[in-house]
Amino acid sequence: MAGKFEVYEDQAGKFRFRLKAGNGEVVASGQGYPTKSAAHKGCEAVQRAADGARIEDVDS
């Protein structure tokens, strides 16, 4: 089963998204957006950014 983005309204009236893996586990979540449309655009931005993204280890 493929993962999915869920867009929802939080208790403060902001729209947020969460990315769920195929098993239902939340693997990422987004900031609060003023509109549902803006939250959808946030999902699309994550999809574009993740396509072909490499993994980098960052030493602290």
From TrEMBL:
Domain DUF1508: 10-57
Gene3D superfamilies from the UniProt entry: YegP-like
Pfam family, one: DUF1508
This protein's name: DUF1508 domain-containing protein
Organism, as annotated: Pseudonocardia spirodelae
